[in-house]
Specification:
By secondary structure, the protein is an all-alpha fold. It has helices spanning 3-18, 21-44, 48-67, 71-98, 101-124. The relative contact order is 0.14.
């Protein structure tokens, strides 16, 4: 990996570490949606390996969404999402095994609806305070003036 690639990965990790949870969830939905769209296109083109790879990536993202649920604090909503994510996971496996677009298309529809809901929730809540991704963006003691 080049030095540029290392810096890109470090910046990406820092960006994710400072992002609020709602934005991360939307990013996960975006990744799953993108991979399912690619898989469906590869399936039409009869590219079995590419279809498989994209569906596995989407399935891994759904697994990540499942792992982020806080069942204690989330109550009924978390239970419903757990059932929905489990259903999506199974549908993606079925689509991959049978090379059938229908299960993946149903997951795609659900993910789009959930994504829109999270975007709407994010617009209603004030932005979360985050730590700057770059050290130079943090205030230094040289620039801070305390008057008293």
């Amino acid at each position: 990996m080049s030095a540029y690639g290392s810096y890109q990965n470090a910046y990406r990790r820092a960006s994710v570490n400072t992002m609020d949870q709602g934005k991360l969830i939307v990013m996960l939905y975006d990744g799953a949606i993108r991979n399912i769209n690619f898989a469906l296109q590869h399936l039409k083109d009869d590219e079995v390996e590419k279809t498989h790879n994209c569906l596995v990536k989407a399935k891994n993202i759904v697994t990540e969404l499942l792992s982020t649920l806080n069942m204690e604090q989330g109550g009924e909503i978390a239970k419903n999402l757990q059932s929905l994510y489990s259903y999506m996971f199974n549908q993606l496996v079925e689509s991959n095994v049978r090379k059938d677009p229908q299960p993946a298309e149903s997951v795609l529809k659900l993910l789009r609806e959930l994504r829109e809901a999270w975007v709407h929730i994010g617009k209603r809540q004030p932005p979360a305070a985050s730590v700057p991704a770059r050290p130079e963006a943090m205030p230094s003691s040289k620039n801070v003036r305390v008057q008293g």
